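Anyone up for a design puzzle?
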């Protein structure tokens, strides 16, 4: 008769192991500070400049000026953000803006087209250029920096060819009133361009945060290899991101033409650096560590308040590029720090490929 087996020895508890139980969210205060720090900074900057310039800064005229003059940089920052979601950069934004605003004026002034048709053609052309950029990057296997810089240079050449190195100036009759009202009109007492920015931000937020295509784009940007392994069409979504960026740039060109009311072939390059500053700085706000529309809008607000206050203080002209360059370095540094912090804490804020499920409509 065999003896019954002896019970296994009790498992020794590891003294270094954390006791079981509900875990408290770690770093909640730090997360809130990272997510809403830029928003608080905007309020602080507005308060500081209001105290320093009580007669000029906290006025409705200043608010109207900020909302109208910063609308085009805000639209371009949102355009730059979309390819960044997929891990690419579109350096042709400034050149595309210059070509779009010159082209719409050429079609209206020189070719005599109706302004609605000219605007639609220019916006569609911007989308076609975006598709070309995406195809060159993905199917040509050329780095996005090099590819978009090359196409941007070609667009700048086309702009110079159209204008012959000069400017497109409307005749004595001027531009159609409906076209100029795209920028000069108001709604609810506020400049209409501000509502364009809000509408575009809302659309991009819904697409990126609430629809499956947004999750796919974030997966492509975070890990293209993993996205390809689970069946996500990396090339297709990257081309879509560039096409969306091109469409937005085309719309911004129409808005710039309505603002300037003359065709200047070199004006678009001035918007390139502010666009990337807003897009990269926006990746440190609202959803730290990932480019997002609401964060981009907050970043543009910080830049707008800061630049307006500096200008009213009487700063020299060279402070503007200095401010943009310093802010760009700060944005990249903060984005890198946020990514490293997420890796250390394990708080993954960017969805990975495993999060794409059939319920989302994915593979």
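Challenge accepted. My sequence:
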């Amino acid at each position: 008769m065999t003896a019954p087996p002896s019970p296994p020895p009790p498992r020794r508890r590891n003294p270094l192991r954390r006791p079981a139980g509900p875990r408290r969210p770690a770093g909640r205060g730090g997360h809130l500070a990272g997510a809403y720090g830029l928003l608080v900074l905007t309020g602080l900057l507005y308060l500081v400049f209001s105290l320093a310039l009580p007669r000029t800064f906290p006025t409705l005229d200043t608010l109207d000026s900020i909302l109208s003059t910063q609308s085009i940089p805000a639209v371009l920052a949102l355009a730059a953000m979309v390819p960044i979601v997929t891990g690419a950069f579109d350096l042709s934004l400034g050149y595309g803006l210059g070509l779009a605003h010159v082209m719409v004026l050429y079609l209206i002034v020189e070719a005599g087209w109706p302004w609605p048709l000219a605007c639609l053609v220019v916006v569609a052309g911007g989308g076609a250029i975006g598709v070309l950029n995406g195809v060159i990057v993905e199917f040509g296997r050329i780095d996005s920096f090099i590819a978009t810089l090359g196409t941007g240079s070609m667009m700048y050449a086309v702009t110079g060819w159209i204008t012959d190195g000069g400017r497109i100036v409307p005749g004595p009759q001027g531009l159609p009133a409906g076209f100029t009202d795209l920028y000069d009109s108001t709604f609810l007492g506020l400049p209409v361009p501000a509502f364009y920015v809000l509408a575009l931000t809302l659309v991009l937020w819904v697409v990126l945060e609430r629809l499956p295509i947004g999750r796919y784009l974030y997966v492509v940007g975070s890990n293209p290899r993993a996205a390809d392994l689970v069946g996500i069409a990396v090339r297709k979504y990257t081309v879509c991101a560039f096409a969306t960026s091109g469409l937005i740039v085309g719309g911004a060109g129409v808005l710039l033409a309505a603002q300037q009311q003359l065709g200047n072939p070199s004006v678009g390059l001035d918007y390139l650096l502010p666009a990337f500053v807003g897009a990269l700085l926006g990746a440190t706000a609202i959803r730290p560590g990932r480019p997002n529309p609401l964060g981009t809008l907050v970043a543009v607000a910080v830049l707008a308040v800061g630049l307006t206050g500096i200008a009213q203080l009487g700063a020299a002209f060279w402070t503007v590029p200095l401010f943009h360059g310093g802010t760009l370095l700060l944005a990249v540094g903060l984005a890198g720090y946020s990514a490293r912090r997420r890796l250390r804490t394990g708080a993954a804020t960017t969805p990975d490929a495993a999060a794409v499920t059939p319920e989302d409509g994915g593979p």
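A detail worth pointing out: Confidence is low (pLDDT under 50) at residues 14-26, 347-363.
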